[in-house]
Structures are given as C-alpha cells and as structure tokens.
Design a protein that fits this description.
This protein is 44% helix and 14% strand. By secondary structure, the chain is of the alpha/beta class. Helix 2 runs antiparallel to helix 12 and helix 5 packs parallel to helix 7. It is globular. The N terminus is likely disordered. It has 2 domains: 277 residues, Aldolase class I (TIM Barrel), CATH 3.20.20; 72 residues, Non-ribosomal Peptide Synthetase Peptidyl Carrier Protein, Chain A, CATH 1.10.1200. The longest helix is centred in the C-terminal third of the chain and has 19 residues. The chain has 15 helices and 10 strands. The structure holds flavin mononucleotide. The site of flavin mononucleotide has 21 residues, from strand 4.
Length: 361
C-alpha cells in the first residue's frame, strides 16, 4: 500500500472511529423513553438539557431538523424582526414555518418598541411556536442602531416595558437571551436577569461576552454562574462549547440547567446526543462515515424540500464543507461542491467523497 494511502487510513481510523463502520451504531439520538423530565421552561418540558443557539442565516427549519434528529432538546429559530412581522413582510413570515418533528420550537424576535414587540409576539404564538425568546444579545451595528439586541441591556426601563408588554400579550413561555452587558462586570446581566424574573420570564440564556467583544476572546462562564445564583428560573449557559466535555464542564462550573450550542453545531449536529450521553453516563455515540453521509444527505434533502433547489443549492455550496472539517481531502470535497446546482449533484458529490474515504480504509 502506498505510504500516502496508509497514512490516510491511519488518520481516518484514529480520528473518526471508522472501525465501527459495519457495526450497528450506538443509538444516535436519545429515545423519549430513555429520559425522564429533565427541565421545564414554563409549561414546556425538554427531553434533553441541550439547546440549539439561534444563529441568523443558519438555524432555519432544515438545520433545526437535523439538530433535533441528533438529540437536541430545544431548537431555536434565527432572530426575526418584530417590525418585519408586524409590517407583514412575506420573507419574515416564512421564517415562522415549522413542522411537528422539530417541536418544541423557540422563536426569537428582536426589536425595541414594546407595542411592536407585543404584536409580533402574538403572531409568533399564533404560528404555533412553543416558546417566545427575545434577543438581548445581538451586537451587530445595524441592530444596535435601532436600540434592539444588546442595546437593550443598558436601558433597563425600556427592557422592562418590552417584557411586560410581551408577557401580557402571550400565554406561551417567554425567555430572553442576554450577554454579559457593556462591561466585563456582568452587573447588567444580573440586573436584567432579576428584572426579567420579576416580570414573569420563564428562562434566561446567557452568552457571557460583552457587547464590544462580539465573538472575540473567551466566554466568561463565571457570569453564567452569577446569573444562576441570582434567579430561580432556569438558566441556559452558552459560549464556547466545542465538545461534550466542554458542556459537562459548563454544567459543573456554572450550575446551569441546560447548555446552548451555536457555532460548533454547524457541521457537528451530533454534539447534542453526545452531550446528553455524557451527562447521563451513557456510551458517547461516535459518528462514523456512514452516519455522517446520512446526516449530510438529510440536510440537502430537507433544504431542497424547504427552500426549493434554486435557493438551497447555493447554500449547500458552503455549508456542506462544515461537515467534513478536518477530514482527509476535505478541501477537495469543498471544491467539488463549490458550484453544485442540483440536489442530485450534491448527493452524488457527498457519496463519492464518502466512498473514497471508506475505500482508503
Ligand atoms: C453566524 C451567527 C449568527 C448568530 N445569530 C444570532 C441570533 O440570531 N440571535 C442570537 O441571540 N444570537 C445569535 N448569535 C449568537 C449565538 O447564538 C451564540 O450566542 C454565540 O455564537 C456563542 O455561542 P457558541 O460559542 O456556542 O457559538 C449568532 C452567532 C453567529 C456566529
């Protein structure tokens, strides 16, 4: 066997546990019967203490479905503009589309006007969402300029007005997703969290970076611990979970009730079942090539089904690459999907790449 091929084989075996390729996989996601009621957000019971973070442009219905099918306890929509909903933008309303298989679903809205937010919240509830989440964390300039997102964290009066208006307008559980605030101290996070609990918010997700940090530096998990100490509603910890072990560390270090995964879930949706397995001392499901292929094809199929081929294919050109990060010859695969223009072509490229990986073993 040529040296390069041998090296490839060893790399694949070590890194991706492909020796299990012909054996039945350990349960790839948790069955409902496996688990008791771990966590409640208001009236909604989560079957796993794992949450998919809202990711603008990414956590659309097809992406949420694959997260759910890989053990995620609660999936979240991308942030949706309250103005867009109220002014009846059809593109914005499409973002509310859902299917029963992904339930429970949390829909996140952003905005800064209490009446608009309440009106948008009513629309979200009417669309069948299980939980309404309000964005207190987006630090993108365009959003900040409107006084929305993390800008709300330095205006507790307006924040309270929004939460009161929304709380009285809907009966589904209400959650918020906050950052550390505008300085490192975390004081704004604590003030907003206590105020939110007081007005009837059912859970709080904390991404412990300041507004200026955007996604730079490390998330300061001590802020999650401090929020957890200061409220009695569930706290969801978020930031820098890049492995099941990191999730377990976050539970241990912060006492949070659930963990929320964002960037790492892009290309690693199985992280949810892996965290759940670690949490409950079950064998951590490893993802072999066959399973990876299955998930990628499922993502293509679901995206084409939801968006149609014309819109889905350009998305797949960059997104399929997430799933092969670090795998041998992944750059060749990325190149091969750079111009895919049909579902058939995308599936063929996935299959041919995965076949090549298996043949090398
Ligand atoms: C591409 C991208 C889009 C995001 N969109 C949203 C969003 O719509 N709403 C929100 O609250 N946070 C959003 N975030 C922040 C994430 O939800 C999460 O708080 C952050 O990525 C930290 O978690 P992680 O380290 O697990 O990625 C976004 C982050 C990224 C990278």
């Amino acid at each position: 066997m040529p040296f390069r091929q041998k090296k490839l084989e060893v790399t694949i075996k070590i890194a991706y546990n492909v020796q299990t390729i012909d054996k039945p996989l350990f349960a790839t996601f948790c069955l409902a019967s496996d688990i008791s009621n771990f966590m409640k957000i208001g009236s909604i019971t989560l079957k796993s203490q794992t949450v998919l973070a809202p990711l603008a442009g990414i956590t659309n219905l097809p992406f949420r479905l694959i997260a759910k099918e890989n053990g995620c306890g609660l999936v979240c929509s991308e942030m949706i503009s309250s103005n867009g909903l109220v002014y009846n933008s059809s593109k914005t309303h499409t973002m509310l589309e859902s299917v029963s298989e992904e339930k429970p679903l949390s829909v996140q809205i952003f905005g800064s006007d209490p009446f608009m937010m309440a009106e948008a919240a009513v629309m979200v509830e009417a669309s069948g969402a299980d939980i309404l989440d309000i964005n207190f964390g987006c630090s993108v300039k365009k959003v900040l300029k409107t006084g929305s997102g993390v800008a709300l964290m330095r205006d507790i009066v307006k924040s309270e007005a929004i939460l009161r208006a929304v709380r009285s307008a809907i009966s589904i559980p209400l959650t918020i997703k906050i950052r550390t605030g505008w300085d490192k101290s975390g004081k704004q996070a604590l003030d907003i969290a206590r105020m939110a609990e007081g007005v009837g918010v059912d859970a709080i997700a904390v991404h412990p970076r300041t507004a200026q940090q955007m996604f730079q530096g490390n998330a300061d998990w001590s802020v999650i611990a401090a929020v957890k100490q200061s409220v009695s509603i569930p706290v969801i910890g978020n930031g820098d979970i890049i492995s099941p072990e990191a999730a377990i560390d976050m539970f241990a270090q912060t006492g949070c009730d659930a963990v929320m995964v964002g960037r790492y879930a892009m290309g690693n949706p199985w992280i949810f079942s892996q965290i759940d397995a670690r949490l409950h001392s079950r064998q951590v499901p490893l993802v072999n090539i066959a399973r990876r292929r299955e998930i990628m094809i499922r993502y293509v199929n679901a995206s084409v089904c939801h968006f149609g081929e014309k819109l889905a294919c350009p998305m797949m050109r960059s997104r399929l690459g997430w799933f092969v990060r670090g795998l041998p010859e992944s750059s060749r695969f990325r190149e091969s999907v750079k111009y895919v223009s049909s579902e058939k072509e995308a599936v063929e490229q996935i299959e041919s790449y995965m076949d090549r990986l298996i043949l090398h073993i």
